[in-house]
Amino acid sequence: MAFPTETVYGLGADAFNERAVARVFEVKNRPRFDPLIVHIADAGSVERLAADFSAGAQRLAARFWPGPLTLVLTKKPIVPDLVTAGCSTVALRVPDHPLTLELLRAAGLALAGPSANPFGCISPTTAAHVREQLGDRIDMVLDGGPCRVGVESTVLQLTDERPILLRPGGTTLEEIEQVIGSVSLPTTTAVREAPGGMASPGMLSRHYAPRTPLIVRTPETGSIAENALGKEKRLGLLAFRPGGDVAQFARVEVLSPGGDLREAAANFFAALRRLDAAGLELIVADQLPESGLGRALNDRLRRAAHS
């Protein structure tokens, strides 16, 4: 079953039903070493799943839940290893969507739910995107309309002395640090906890990728589009805001006419999907400001461009 959240649509299964969870991996063609986020109805559900709900974690939950923040905590043995890729931690969040919250409360479930798309591909932000990519491989899609935030949740590991930002997302680093102070960026040892297992979803170098090759244009590589044009490629542009010379591009998608990062995030995956469907040979994506939600969007672009 696919369900809506404020970030992207999720592909959900009862976290305690290992057969159903295995089906999620099968439908997505997702590697078993990549753990799943578990969606819960409220902060009161944490104690059922996590062995330690620290004061810092509680402050974050009080401030940002429901919302696009996932907390990685030490798990209790009751959580199946299949959900956590054999790691000693579990990734938890409370989604900010009334339809899914009603489902979680009514059914009394904890939903293990990655994005509802084939593994590594562009994340879905509407029910139509889910149907296009997964079709009859799933039994049901709960249509909650377009996703309001439009980029996946921030993932924060809280099992070490200092919190570690494992994935930037819909809750900004700046907002988090206002609540708990300084946060570390991930290291190799923080990302990979167990042999073959990842500490968090969304940590692979290539992810969120269109079928069409994509490059990121930065101020240092501004001529890269012109070089590609010289090879007679049919180009598309993913731009943060209007402006610049766009005549060389066959298709242009502007994320935010007013230069607003929240609007850009909400439009990001849908715009990337439209470019991917436009019969282009190459997508050129302009780097966004490396702050606030721009940090999360640049992360997705880097992963989409990684070869």
Description:
The protein is α/β, with parallel strands linked by helices. It folds into 2 domains: about 1-190, DHBP synthase (Alpha-Beta Complex), CATH 3.90.870.10; about 215-305, Threonylcarbamoyl-AMP synthase, C-terminal domain (Rossmann fold). About 30% of the residues lie in helices and about 15% in strands. The protein contains 11 helices and 13 strands. It has helices at about 20-30, 45-50, 55-65, 80-85, 100-105, 125-135, 175-180, 190, 225-230, 260-275, 295-305; strands spanning about 1-5, 10, 15, 35-40, 70-75, 90-95, 110, 155, 165, 215, 235-240, 250-255, 280-285. The strands form 3 sheets. A 7-stranded mixed beta sheet has the order 3-7-4-6-5-8-9, covered by helices on one side. A 4-stranded parallel beta sheet has the order 10-13-11-12, with helices on both faces. A hairpin with a 6-residue loop joins β8 (about 155) and β9. The radius of gyration is 19 Å and the shape is globular. The two termini are about 30 Å apart. Residues about 190-195 have low confidence and may be disordered.
> Rounded to an integer, what's the Rg over CA atoms?
19 Å
Output the strand order for the largest sheet.
3-7-4-6-5-8-9
Q: Largest sheet, described in full?
A: 7 strands, mixed
Mean pLDDT figure? 91
Q: What percentage of the residues does DSSP assign to strands (E)? A: 15-25%
What is the CATH top level name of the largest domain? Alpha Beta
Please give the CATH architecture of the largest domain.
Answer: Alpha-Beta Complex
How far apart the termini lie comes to 31 Å
Structural class of the secondary structure composition? alpha/beta
The residue fraction in helices comes out at 25-40%
- Counting DSSP H or I runs of 4 or more residues, the number of helices is 11
Tell me the CATH superfamily of the largest domain: DHBP synthase
